Amino acid sequence: MNNGPQSHWSQIAELSFVVDGYELESLAVDESSGYERVSTHFRLRGGGADGLGEDIWPFAEDQEALLSAGPSLPLAGEWTMGAFCAHLAALDQWPEPPSWEAARRYRNWAFESAALDLALRQNKRALPELLGLEPRPVRFVNSLGLGDPPSFDAIARRLARYPELRFKLDADPRWTPDLMDELVVTDAVGSAMSSSKTPTTSPASTSSLPPTCSASPTTRQSTRPATSTQRPSPRAS
User: Fold this and answer.
1) What are phi and psi of 136, to 5 degrees?
2) For residue 191, which of 13, 30, 45, 92 sits 20 to 30 Å off, Cα-Cα?
3) Residue 212 and residue 121: Cα distance in Å, rounded?
4) Is residue 119 within a helix (H) or strand (E), and if so which, with residue range?
């Protein structure tokens, strides 16, 4: 969690809660690109309530090592959010070193979000109320790739069933001009995302679709100020 200039961290840090233990649950879904997308649910329990977070790191070997180790971290106790996050930052959350160092942040965020969910439930508070904010509508999008080879079929099937659906697409340099024209006509693509350090689509794609952005913004100098945090990150082992 970020305690930068625009942060509400001070209002969250003193929120108190208790953790009795936690559980891990493996999740998996077959994606259109032909591989199994895995993630892990983190369920913190305490005071008759549960708090959920999710480690969305996509590499199966890292998730399998986590599940094999089980809920082995010393998280039980009475905490404030500030103390719990500081405690997490001092723990080695990885039974095996991750395949990519950025994964440490994903796992830490999963624990932190589960803790915040649990703290809010135990205190019978909603997050907007705690922060003094007015809730506003949020649009959820369907995030997917377009298969191998890329085609418009997956988009057409979804729009036929859910005409108001919107998409975040995984950009692919194999997208053809015809495919991009089909995507533009739908007016349903909110963003095209690249998982690499630089956009992978051709120049034509960025002129017809919403700007391509990076799924790993901390790897780019221009976005480091926006993604940095003053609190300690999970330590590297």
Assistant:
1) -130, 155
2) 30
3) 37
4) helix 103-122
pLDDT in tens, 120-173: 999 999 999 999 999 998 888 998 889 889 999 999 999 999 999 999 988 888
Peptide bond into 149 cis (omega under 30): yes
pLDDT tens-digit map of 49-75: 999 999 998 888 999 999 999 999 999
Using pLDDT thresholds of 50, 70 and 90, give the confidence band for residue 216: very low
How many Å apart are CA 10 and CA 13, to the nearest integer? 5
Confidence of residue 191 (pLDDT cuts 50, 70, 90): confident
Instruction: Please report, for the chain, the start and end positions of each structural domain, with discontinuous segments joined by +.
Output: 9-130, 142-217
Per-residue tokens: 105? 């942040």
Higher pLDDT: 231 or 86? It is: 86
| Phi, psi torsion values for 89, nearest 5 degrees | -65, -20
Identify the DSSP state of 235.
Answer: P
- The DSSP 8-state label assigned to residue 36 in this structure reads E
Q: At what angle do helices 81-89 and 103-122 cross, to 10 degrees?
A: 160
Contact 23, 71 (CB under 8 A): yes
CATH superfamily assigned to domain 9-130? Enolase-like, N-terminal domain (3.30.390.10)
User: What does the alpha-carbon distance between residue 94 and residue 100 come to, in Å, rounded to a whole number?
Assistant: 12
Residue given tokens 């892990």 in the structure block: 40
